[in-house]
Amino acid sequence: MKKMYSTKMINTGGRSGEVHSPDHSFELSIAAPGKRVENATNPEQLFAAGFSACFNSALELVKQRKGIDGASTVSAQVSLYAENESSFVLGVEIEGFVEGLSLDETQELLEIAHTVCPYSKATAGNIEVTVKAVSE
């Protein structure tokens, strides 16, 4: 396997701290989910951002291979669940739209993209991920 890209982020303070790249070109304040802290995000938002972008890129590849050029939009809703007081898991709901396609046609493309997306592969068998076509 050939490595195409690698990146690194450093966290201090966990869910009440900050993350930054080694060169400090990317820095974010981190707050626990549900806390409103100005200019801060949380790990679930970061995961949702990465998953939606990665999944939409996989969908773009699938569309390209099938000669489909309608614009697509993908959202990822990441939920944090408490299994008990010391065990937590994530769940993800992916929703996708492809301009000019029916819900069934879009669902078919989403299912294929789900087998292509690196985030989907990384989470397979580890957390519940649902994939659903939606109208815009």
TrEMBL record:
<protein>
    <recommendedName>
        <fullName>Organic hydroperoxide resistance protein OhrA</fullName>
    </recommendedName>
</protein>
<comment type="similarity">
    <text>Belongs to the OsmC/Ohr family.</text>
</comment>
<dbReference type="InterPro" id="IPR036102">
    <property type="entry name" value="OsmC/Ohrsf"/>
</dbReference>
<dbReference type="InterPro" id="IPR003718">
    <property type="entry name" value="OsmC/Ohr_fam"/>
</dbReference>
<dbReference type="InterPro" id="IPR015946">
    <property type="entry name" value="KH_dom-like_a/b"/>
</dbReference>
<dbReference type="GO" id="GO:0006979">
    <property type="term" value="P:response to oxidative stress"/>
</dbReference>
<dbReference type="Pfam" id="PF02566">
    <property type="entry name" value="OsmC"/>
</dbReference>
<dbReference type="InterPro" id="IPR019953">
    <property type="entry name" value="OHR"/>
</dbReference>
